[in-house]
Design a protein that fits this description.
Length: 92
Amino acid sequence: MNRAEIMNIIYNILKNQIELSTISSFHEDARLNEDLYMDSVMILELILYLELNLGIDVPDEALIPTDFSTIGKLTDFIERQKKQALVEGLND
């Protein structure tokens, strides 16, 4: 799964599952709080949908606020989580 596909999944979750009213502000540098007006509950909801849709597990200790500051940083975070899941799967 490449970066564009991950961003597309995030976009679809925000638009269709969370029904974010500020979706027109979505772009890689959009800030979740300031540009998309997402509060902490909405961000947790997004994480849940990402776990379900991407088949990843995001442990509580992996939740670092800077990873959830922009769409681009969130995408980076998901890429790291997917790589880590792949490595762990190979080690099992």
